Amino acid sequence: MNYNNKTVWITGASSGIGRELAIQFAELGASVILSARNVEKLTALKDELKGGGHLILPLDLAKPEEVLSKVTAAINELPAIDILINNGGISQRSLFLENDFKVYRQLMEVNYFGLVALTKAVLPSMVARKSGSVVAISSVAGKVGSKLRTGYSGTKFAVVGFMDCLRAEVKEHNIHCLTICPGFIKTAIAHNSLNPQGVAQNKSEQAIENGMDVKVAASKMINAINSKKDEVIVGQGLSGWAPTIKRFFPRLFNRLTAKVNFK
């Protein structure tokens, strides 16, 4: 699909899936709005992108009220947003009994409320034009649960539910809503995952290192956007099949997840 004269806004654009989506959309002709906290990385990425018209708008999703006010104030000065990709987020690798309560607050602010705030600011302009796509990067952990993910999985389940409701509400306005649930993808998500004290664990995990290449994953996500799908699983191996196994063999899946640490 040709994305000339289209504007795609991507959060979490400084690394991983967000960065690769920005590269591939730019190659398809889109102008990209890049959001994350790290301005230096966003600037380097902007300089790398093919084409022109790309913008940087730093956002801290951990401060959703600030996101809502900042974007609402700026939205009329920005190009019309054709696709909003809510990709920014953080994960977790820690047991419920060991976690500080603040970890759950951190995860929910970034993964859920940050997403809701940005969507709240951008969606009215799409509705006014009767055109646009809202994309949420949830997770396979938003469809099935496992050890060490109580906070992360809870936020991603919330994203899936939010998008299901939003999709029903805006269908009459010709707005497309897509929920993407990645499995294990080769990114830095494991390094940035929070420990019981809410600090990045700064270590890799074999499951992530053996996961789907991020370029392949991003290409599949763009294809799902092109096809106007409602929800898609992007993963390989167990991470790709987990929702199906859970659906048809729930007791077996629950026994397996009680035995295995996905690290």
From TrEMBL:
Gene3D superfamilies: NAD(P)-binding Rossmann-like Domain. It is an enzyme of class 1 (oxidoreductase). Keywords: Oxidoreductase. SUPFAM superfamilies: NAD(P)-binding Rossmann-fold domains. GO terms for cellular component: membrane. The keyword Oxidoreductase applies. Its EC number is 1.1.1.100. One of its GO terms (molecular function) is 3-oxoacyl-[acyl-carrier-protein] reductase (NADPH) activity. It comes from the Bacteria. PROSITE patterns: ADH_SHORT. Coiled coil: none annotated. Belongs to the short-chain dehydrogenases/reductases (SDR) family. This is 3-oxoacyl-[acyl-carrier protein] reductase.
